[in-house]
Sequence to fold (432 residues):
Amino acid sequence: MIVSFLFLAFIVMMLIGVPIGVAMGLAGSAAIALANPDTQWFGLMAVPQNFFAGLGKYPLLAIPMFVLVGSIFERSGVALRLVNFAGAIVGRGPGMLPLVAIAVAMFLGGISGSGPATAAAVGGVMIAAMARAGYPPAYSASVVGAAASIDILIPPSIAFIVYSVMVPGASVPAMFAAGMVPGIMVGLALMVPTVWLARRHGMGRRETELGRPPFWASLREASWALAAPVLILGGMRAGWFTPTEAAVVAVFYGLFIGMAVYRTIKVLDLFLILRESGELSAIILVVVALAGIFAYSLSTLSVIDPITRAIVHSGLGELGVMALLMLLLIFVGMFLDGVSIFLIFIPLLLPVAKFFQWDLVWFGVLLTLTVAMGQFTPPIAVNLMVSCRIAGVRMEETVRWVLWLLAAMICVTLLVIVFPQLALWLPHRLGY
Fold:
């Protein structure tokens, strides 16, 4: 009865517009109180304890720093310089500007790890350029939204940090390394339908009129930005700093580029950057903290074990269970953001992974792949929402293009399921 109330209250609050973190916290608190009717107030002492326990984890310190890095690089003009450099490499022609958008989004993923921030940075530059070249706005928004979803796969990734905090057997460096190869594969897979669709439908006919940027000049302009992932990821690999410390180093490096090199960030801009980053970080961390209450209520009510037994004894077999979980997460990803999905479902899915003896690092990459698909799948997709707002189109107009990009990403997910070493080779090679 109390279990039914927990999930029903959570779903009803979300449907009426209550923020997901608040819904998890209120539903979990009510369930804890109902589970201890004789010692109701004493039982509620677990609420503040678990709220604090949800935040009191060292790796979570990296999240506000990487959010700040994304905001700094978005305002520093890095995206424009990377676009010019990528355009100088691939040249001009039908399908080349969308390819550049994907490549730049992949690169920015190695700096911030935030999909919406990358969608805003790349979309602000590329959607207008693609419109001038003759690409439909809905197509441009679809490409940018899908490309930005790669960012939670390519390190540093906020989603991987949250996963490693919730799963003790998966360290942050191991998750970062595991996401590298699948992230690159997703980027390459998205390029195939993107270029094919552009040429099949005769898009970008005016692209050759834009002119090809000079290679050496664009390389010189982009060199400071190109060094950022090398500094962040190389420093972690060399043992100079932890992922959390790397985030702080990236903040100061981004400020140096924006204020001293490109001079696109003024002192007065810092207040706006810090305010925006603080607000977004607070939203993420409050959701994390309130999810701790929800997870504690699941544990107190002994919900996890019955769900695990129902799934593993469903008769679907290992591959059937895997397919069911992937479809569930893709569907949920249409409505919720990646961090919320991890916080809600990992406590329920982790025992299933342990039952089938799946590698927890590999399992984390698969979960992240499915969440990434949800970030650009209508009706509510955070990355696609940002790119549609920039392009000035309704999300329904993007469906005909998004389906092709979604199919490409599903192919990569299937490859990672069939060949786990695509995710596990690099962590093993690096000794994680």
Observations:
- The longest helix spans residues 269-300.
- The mean pLDDT is 82.
